[in-house]
Amino acid sequence: MVARGLTKHFPPDVRAVDGIDLNIGAGKVFGFLGANGSGKTTTIRMLTTLLQPTSGSAQVDGLDVLRQSMEVRRRIGVALQEAGLDLLQTGRELLMLQSRLFGLAGGRLKARVGELLEIVDMTEAADRRIGTYSGGMKRRLDLATALIHDPRILFLDEPTTGLDPISRDAIWRHVRTLNEERGITVFLTTQYLEEADRLAHELAIIDSGKIIAEGSPEEMKASIGADVITVKMPDGGASTEAAAEAAVRGMEGVEDVRSPDGNGTLVIYIKDGARAIAPVVIQLNQAGVEVGEITLARPTLDDVFLQKTGHHLAEAQAAAAREAV
Ligand SMILES: Nc1ncnc2c1ncn2[C@@H]1O[C@H](COP(=O)(O)OP(=O)(O)OP(=O)(O)O)[C@@H](O)[C@H]1O
Ligand SMILES: [Mg+2]
Fold first, then answer.
1. Ligand 2 centroid to residue 47 C-alpha, Å
2. Residue 84 confidence (pLDDT)
3. pLDDT above 90 as % of the chain
4. Which of 69, 92, 183, 264 is 20 to 30 A from residue 153's alpha carbon, by CA?
């Protein structure tokens, strides 16, 4: 799957997807990580031929999404974020109906639906109404629907958003099995750092329509090249944050210093973090900055996000939520 300069502008001024390049190998699980409104669904809709790009190009399985859209559609399965399910239907009825649309009938239809229900562990619940399903069961049914025509490539738009940890784990397990045992290439979007980290072989982080980092989760975290010391400052106003940043910035081994959320938190990227903790505390105290709490960690994908954007992914989510109100 390849995208070059893929762009979608919504008039008058929304740059939902702003010139992204993608290069995704067959057989991979590709994670597309971003906050609310960053452009994930818009990208999926262009790659799945549901939305025409403003500019740029994309190929899926080597086929052009604009000029060969019918062939593309035959090879992909899509589970969209806002999938509307008929709550009065049973899971089996939905799969039968959808399978008929793909031209299946008679014994083949029945067998295929039975198989799909097995794949997503829904055989027992198959004859209950969808209205009685949990969120996780509905997402598994979405997954089964996307698999009807045995696609080689699967697009999943936020398959676990809003699910509890157990249902989320079940989806992860199914996605892994589909990828490892059936060789299906998976393009999945997520707002969850942990999901991107655990499930994706390759990853791109999208922020305001632009890709700000890409690589395997391990590569991304290693790119930070330092440990992360987080300091909570009890009297953390802007001037305290500025004083703290200035005090620490020149210390040996410091790669970067940030106070991302304006709430008295200082994030220090520093080599050999364990050894640096005591000197950091001393340095801050000498600068008149009180240290409330100090923690040391290996970099996470959130640190990658923070380093590239200046804010945490969670903070970007909160900001998007405020904007939406
Ligand atoms: N049809 C449309 N008309 C105008 N603006 C749109 C349209 N669709 C999306 N947008 C805008 O484009 C931006 C990207 O939206 P998109 O749905 O791709 O984000 P997302 O990453 O999928 O977000 P979420 O995590 O909330 O699903 C947002 O600012 C959104 O409001
Ligand atoms: Mg979306």
1. 14
2. 74
3. 78
4. 92
Mean pLDDT (whole number) for 151-169: 92
Domain count, the chain: 2
- pLDDT tens column, 290-315: 999 999 999 999 989 988 888 888 77
Claim to verify: residue 243 and residue 210 sit in the same structural domain = no
CA distances from 308 to 30, 155, 214, 305 (A): 20, 26, 11, 5
pLDDT at 158 over 90: yes
Instruction: Evaluate whether residue 142 is within a structural domain.
Output: yes
Domain hosting residue 37, numbered range: 2-221
Q: Are residues 292 and 231 in the same domain?
A: yes
Phi and psi for 107 in degrees, rounded to 5?
A: -65, -35
Neighbours of ion ligand 2 (CB under 5 A): 40-41, 81
Of 10, 50, 193, the one to substitute when testing ligand 1's pocket (max ligand atoms within 8 A of C-beta) is 10
Ligand 1 atom, smallest distance to 44 CA: 18
Query: Based on the number of CB atoms within 10 Å of its own CB, is 28 exposed (0-12), middle (13-18) or buried (19 or more)?
Result: middle
Quick check: 34 and 192 in contact, CB under 8 A?
no
d(CA 117, CA 99): 12
290 and 263 fall within a common domain: yes
